[in-house]
Amino acid sequence: MVVRAMAAGARPPLALLLPLLLTFSSSPASAAADTIAANSSLADGQTLVSAGGVFELGFFTPGTSTARFLGIWYMGVAPQTVVWVANREAPITTGTTASLGINATGFLVLADPTGQVFWSSAPSNVSGAGAPVAQLLESGNFVLRGGGGAVLWQSFDYPSDTLLPGMKLGWDLTTGLDRRLTTWRSAGDPSPGDYTFGIDIRGVPEGFIRAKNRTAPVYRNGPWNGLQFSGEPEMEPNNSNFRFEFVANATDVYYTFLVDGGGAGGVVSRFVLNQSSVQRYVSPPGGQGWSLYWSLPRDLCDDYALCGAYGVCDTSGGLPACACVHGFTPASPRDWALRDSSAGCARSTQLNCTGDGFLRLTGVKLPDTTNATEDAAITVDQCRQRCLANCSCLAYAASSIKGGDSGCIIWSSQLIDIRHFSNGGEDLYVRLAASDLPSNGDGSRKKNILVAVFVSIAALLLFVFGGFFVWTRFFRNRGTTFQNAQRFNSFDSSVPLTPVPERSKENESGENKDLNVTLFDMGAIALSTDNFATWTKLGEGGFGAVYKGELDGGQTVAVKRLSKYSTQGLDEFKNEVMLIAKLQHVNLVRLLGCCIHGEERILVYEYMENKSLDKFIFDKSRSAQLNWFKRFDIILGIARGLLYLHQDSRYKVIHRDLKAGNILLDKDMNPKISDFGVARIFAGDDTDSHTRKVVGTYGYMSPEYAMDGVFSVKSDVFSFGVLVLEIVSGRKNRGMYSGGGEQTSLLSHAWKLWREGNALELLDEAVAGAGTHRGSEVLRCVQVALLCVQERPDDRPHMAAVFLALGNPGAVLPQPRLPGFCSDRGSTSTDGEWSSTCTVNDVTVTIVEGR
Ligand SMILES: *[C@@H]1O[C@H](CO)[C@@H](O)[C@H](O)[C@H]1NC(C)=O
Ligand SMILES: *[C@@H]1O[C@H](CO)[C@@H](O)[C@H](O)[C@H]1NC(C)=O
Ligand SMILES: *[C@@H]1O[C@H](CO)[C@@H](O)[C@H](O)[C@H]1NC(C)=O
Ligand SMILES: *[C@@H]1O[C@H](CO)[C@@H](O)[C@H](O)[C@H]1NC(C)=O
Ligand SMILES: *[C@@H]1O[C@H](CO)[C@@H](O)[C@H](O)[C@H]1NC(C)=O
Ligand SMILES: *[C@@H]1O[C@H](CO)[C@@H](O)[C@H](O)[C@H]1NC(C)=O
Ligand SMILES: *[C@@H]1O[C@H](CO)[C@@H](O)[C@H](O)[C@H]1NC(C)=O
Ligand SMILES: *[C@@H]1O[C@H](CO)[C@@H](O)[C@H](O)[C@H]1NC(C)=O
Predict the structure, then answer these.
(1) For residue 742, how many other CB atoms are within 10 A of its CB?
(2) What is the pLDDT averaged over residues 718-747?
(3) Domain residue limits at 107
(4) Domain count, the chain
(5) Which of 371, 464, 512, 741 is deepest in the core (most CB within 10 A)?
(6) The domain spanning residue 790 has which CATH number?
């Protein structure tokens, strides 16, 4: 995912499209056959082809491997998409030729002439009379039948990493057969990898992705609720393309799906366990290739038990964040504050079996049901009674939401792995002591506020984007997309999980309902800044000067007096301000209000104690205050803020003047982006075309913006790349267009060091000296930064991919190409410090093509 998204840059989802070309492999004479009879065999070079020509079975060599494997793949699809492999654990090495046959006892056997067996079908207790026959069916199933037609063995019962339509994932309880997916070790090695995906039948059945080296699961998709898995509300029950089925009875527990009009000429879809994620790929009729339909886990909140017991994970604030269920407090407040929420939450008031009540959480993924019990035959009311009557019952929920809530799931051990969805999800009733129930009077109020500690998690925000973007694109016209399918926006308002914070005092006076931001009086602003006295001036930005002011209530604010270039009228200005005020994120400086007075346009922001980032990183006397960890945190924070600006579904905002001076630091040195949205006031609303006026700062501007005035989110990505290099190195990217003839830059220096394999030398001495940095993190930052400053906007990754790559130590990144501004500039240097430049000659080698 990461690799692809980064490599393609422009559009991560499209990057997942596999080129699909029709190639007809030179078919041996026997190719038309779809069966092997008892005395015949299939040699390397020959293949079986299913009746309609959809699947082909034969020998293949995966990726870079040299060994041969027997497998099934989509016929005529390139690159070869293998859906099943027989001899996963026993590759046929070069120099050996094996063939597949049916031996005298009725087994499918893959062996070489000396009798070495690479693979054989599992024994079957049905002893078929008569000669068995093996046939490759149109569904992709390879079936061995006895003389009487009884199925002795079928490949669908022994999945590799792919689930095809009609295949069952789960259990045959009569035979004890557990069909689960196991990853390939790598693209070139089909031997069983580290991850499996299967149905756990303890308690109420659920699907789990598990990793070999880990006892805790990686991901859990939740119990089936009659329509979908509780953790996958996006599975539409009446999707016009798929039908999903889940069976759980005395003999079978399995999940399967069917594709309407599937097979030849219809939609083709496969479901594959690809390392730690399950992915559904589709290929529309007559389509050009595979596209990723969805992929799970979708974000950090899908990480199993991220928030611990009684913790709820929520991404609606833009970031994955843990909160305790109302009535619970962090079990380990110290760790919790440090964003380690694995210890979960503890009950504030112990249950008193008789006087307890229930708290309803809406729109959630039900907690782990491994230890839960289900009774589908009773109503939800009866379920409540049953839970109340049993002191060990801790929570209950309906077991089916199909045609109204019915049935009963009861939990009597801790509630683990709950997440909140902004769309979809179910109701969960959690048992609480009467005094903790929210409907109670003021007595419990204070506690409730304490309880709702909202801590954001500084880690990677996983890809909702890729999968869901494709989903909405691909099926935009076919029913509900996520945006319109708003079933719930938040938790039930009567039982808020997080009490809404009280509005700050100064916002209450003079509040303008229309604007939703405070309209300040010019007199008050002038007074607070001593009439814009020089000594209150904090700095000068691209859009005007900033002053420090103090409001009536004593709150310190930053007052930005916009320079008078703005062409906007009053209403437009108000609109913009309203939009900016709606952008709220921990990594954005908050806009408190504005002031309009004649020609004067003023924005009032929260004040940041530690001023701007450039005051630290470029100042030799202060740069040591930012050690590597802090710097890395700052980089992640900026990425997060920028990602929010770019991806927030309602308003896509391009910053256009991202630079160290626009990154402010609060008292804890958390980075906050300032001046976002202001560019729109100056340049109008046209979001990805030409701008009348180039606003921005030389040195941070992408080539296409500086030269042609063309901007897009990729221009911000470029500026971000420059910023990261500056944070790492503690040096300014000297303005290459400053007119001084100065042609070298931090970019070319970084590029040179990177190509020589010395990128660590880029690290600020003040940081390197301390010796606390992690080299791999530094290198990752440099690589990501270089990817961001690539010349062609399309080569640059999106912020989603950037954020993923930064936060994910395992990410495999493509090699960056030459940075913008490097290739066609002269090479005279007046700056002794950076004596290298990029020349055309430098560029010819070692650049791996991103796909
Ligand atoms: C696994 O995911 C990677 C990256 O997303 C993709 O390139 C690859 O094709 C996927 N593998 C399969 C078998 O679909
Ligand atoms: C397979 O070979 C055996 C022994 O040579 C023979 O008896 C049998 O009829 C053959 N079966 C078929 C289907 O040709
Ligand atoms: C057929 O193959 C199976 C599995 O390898 C083996 O157990 C059995 O002995 C073989 N039968 C004969 C007659 O070789
Ligand atoms: C789904 O389709 C079935 C049968 O076509 C219908 O009975 C049911 O009401 C539909 N459900 C929804 C949620 O549209
Ligand atoms: C369980 O469901 C499967 C599929 O619907 C069905 O074939 C089987 O007979 C059922 N078993 C029982 C005991 O109902
Ligand atoms: C449980 O709560 C009820 C009602 O609030 C109260 O009468 C009873 O004393 C409590 N019992 C215990 C053991 O706290
Ligand atoms: C289920 O119960 C077992 C045994 O008491 C316990 O170890 C495990 O953590 C429980 N699982 C969950 C999800 O509560
Ligand atoms: C109460 O629930 C526990 C756990 O589900 C169960 O073992 C026990 O039998 C139940 N007690 C009663 C009286 O139903």
Answers:
(1) 16
(2) 73
(3) 1-158
(4) 5
(5) 464
(6) 1.10.510.10
